[in-house]
Amino acid sequence: MAESDWDTVTVLRKKGPTAAQAKSKQAILAAQRRGEDVETSKKWAAGQNKQHSITKNTAKLDRETEELHHDRVTLEVGKVIQQGRQSKGLTQKDLATKINEKPQVIADYESGRAIPNNQVLGKIERAIGLKLRGKDIGKPIEKGPRGK
């Protein structure tokens, strides 16, 4: 067997300083004395509670008074849906089932709370047979051949 000395210890590498030690003032000064390149950078608002400070744009935003909101379905359209549904003898749930939507969608359209969706409006138009879009709201849909 090969001779082995159990008492000798071989150090392969020395551990570098930890992050906290490397950032200390002493470590920076020692590195500068050794002639190493030391880069320091100040982080913006580091350690300060700057999240609530007023910026220049805040005043500009406060002066903005324009209200941004989505257009809703008009009450006229809601009444046409309701009348068309009742003339066909359908409940809101029946109409919703017929067009593959939830009953709440029909309730929202009838009450004027819904944001108009052309796909849903088209399905309701076909189900009740009345126009809901354009200038002829409430008039029957002309059933003609669809040309390509």
Automatic annotation (TrEMBL):
Domain HTH cro/C1-type, residue spans? 81-135
Task: Please give one Gene Ontology molecular function term for this protein.
Answer: DNA binding
What the entry lists under Pfam families is as follows: HTH_3 (PF01381), MBF1 (PF08523)
Q: Where is this region: Disordered?
A: 33-63
Q: Which residues form the signal peptide?
A: none
Q: Where is this chain compositionally biased, Basic and acidic residues type?
A: 33-42
Q: Which PROSITE patterns match?
A: HTH_CROC1
User: Which keywords describe this protein according to UniProt?
Assistant: DNA-binding, Transcription, Transcription regulation
Q: Does the keyword Endoplasmic reticulum apply?
A: no
Any one annotated GO CC term: nucleus
**Record's subcellular location:** Nucleus
Provide ranges: composition bias, Polar residues: 48-58
Protein name according to UniProt = Endothelial differentiation-related factor 1
Q: What is the gene called?
A: EDF1
